[in-house]
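Page 47, continued from p. 46.
Same chain as before, 445 aa.
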Amino acid sequence: MLRDAWTLAIETLSWIELRRLGERLALAKAAKQLNIQDSRAVGLAHKLVFETLRRQNTIDSIINSVLAPRSLSDFKLGQQAFLRLYTYVTKFENIDIDKAAVLARTGRSILGWHQLSDIEETLGVILSTEINDVLKKADYEERVALLTYNPTWFVKYCFRMLGSDAIGLLESAVQTLPTYLRVNTLKGSEKSIVQKIESEGATIEKVPQLNYAFKLLGSKMPLIRMQSFQEGLFYIQDKASCLAAEIADPKTGFTVLDVCAAPGAKTTYMALLMQNNGAIYSVDYSRRRMNVWKRETKRMGVEIAVPIVADARHPLPLRLKADLVVLDPPCTSTGAFSKIPSAKWRLTKRSVSNMADIQWNMLNNCAEYVREGGSLVYSTCSVTLEENEMQIEKFLKWHLDFALTETSPKIGLLGLREQSKSQRLYPHIHECTGFFIAKLLREAS
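Result:
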């Protein structure tokens, strides 16, 4: 089992490095390629990959300090992946020298004698290297980046944005956030669904201020294997995403435009809030993701949603005026680093402005589909100003017939840049993905 897990972890990290895939997709592709089906091996590989990626900058700094004058990039992808995994386990799980020797032998059996011999001496030096030896050579912001496992540019950005309050946000990069689920009362009463979920070995508690969201406290099996999940009695959905849907507050009979709708969390929640009465037009550019949307809306019993494959950066193939437009555009995911750690190492400061340009095109286009008296809800899982408050400021200057309106329920903190009607959620404060939500009302002329 150990060899299969490490083989899968090495291959997954190599996929991520080579193809820039997300960790979950890379793990699935690697498991299929290697035909590894043992759930224990897959589970251990998942842990190794995620925890290594979460700390990759510090791990790489340790390795490069040992390799100097060579660097990690001088080696093949399999060697790089093994060195990273080995450094994670030996430096952050604090295993003894005998277990480290077992890992070295495991690496030799996977990579082959020739490839491991090229780095074998390095393994012993890594064991004797202290993290503090690396930290001594760094300036203050680099040291914070290494201690909190964040890119240095992001550390500097957060300090400028939040001052000393940034430390809590930065430290959340390696926190394991709770799992949340949202019960689906299209399929039964809340009480009966909760009883069914708990009868299958899950323990859940209601999230205060939200109508249908529950926090998972424990489960005897993965949620997606539960019969109640297969029957569409609940949807695995983060608390912040649930809040955005409740702030949107679609009413029975509404016409709703859900932009960037896949994989279906917002569509299925809004259909519930509308009691399957009205119309939801769900737009996403990805056919693959819209296939997931179709599966999820069917599982959840949604009857009022229409899928549309289109790029929201351009005018949509629709002629309608909606009571409500909901836009959750692609973003840098800076509020979700603990869930998708590979994202933070692909980003640069330039990535933020590039993503903001895409978001602006979508947001500007969405205004055309809001009727007078209707609402536009904008949300992201990013914490940057350029993707959030600054987008709203620009939008209000371009669209004088829109105004920020209050968001309810109130769970998050006030928006920055004096946008007190917007909400921000942070992982270290709200135990969920970092999120921004604003609601804009189109006033009657």
